[in-house]
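queue> holo job accepted (adenosine-5'-diphosphate)
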Amino acid sequence: MLNIVLFGPPGAGKGTQSERLIQKYGLVHLSTGDIFRANIKGETELGKLAKSYMDQGALVPDEVTINMLRSEVLKHPEANGFIFDGFPRTNAQAVALDAFLSELNTTISIMLALEVEEAELRTRLLLRGQNSGRPDDVNPEIIQKRIDVYNNETKPVKDFYQGQNKFVSINGIGEIDEISTRLYQAIDALK
Ligand code: ADP
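queue> job finished
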């Protein structure tokens, strides 16, 4: 199996690049943000809970997020592999993911980290807020909160994968195609 953690701050381009990667490698895309938003739209209990955190730019609690992700993985027993987009976002999530994948006799193949500097992220997110309909992209304070949460809670997850020699840094600035090519090269180098 090819299991990819696509990592990066809010607005780094994880969603855009995931679309390319699932096509090219035939993977299942699991975006925790997308799954939470689908639950908000469907007005489920999980959606109501997630919304109260997401609207503030805070993380949904680990236990809720981990259980949700686990049940999504189990829905795809025939998968060639997964792209985890927006997960893991804390060390506890990374530890839980490892444990869970080992129960399924598989593991993370690589963490691809899209690197984009903060000023560019702020510009991209405000632009996205003009047409995405995402409430967390409209308010500069909420955007800043998400960037801060990334720096404080999520960035350390890099060290977890660096410790397993699975971490690859990818320049996330440039044309979309150019960035896809960088990702393909990193993945193809695994073979
Ligand atoms: P972005 O990459 O722009 O932050 P996402 O769609 O990945 O957008 O996430 C949107 C929000 O969903 C996050 O700010 C957070 O509230 C929640 N969320 C997504 N993934 C996780 C996760 N793994 N753990 C906790 N909360 C999450």
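queue> The CA atoms of residues 55 and 178 lie 33 Å apart.
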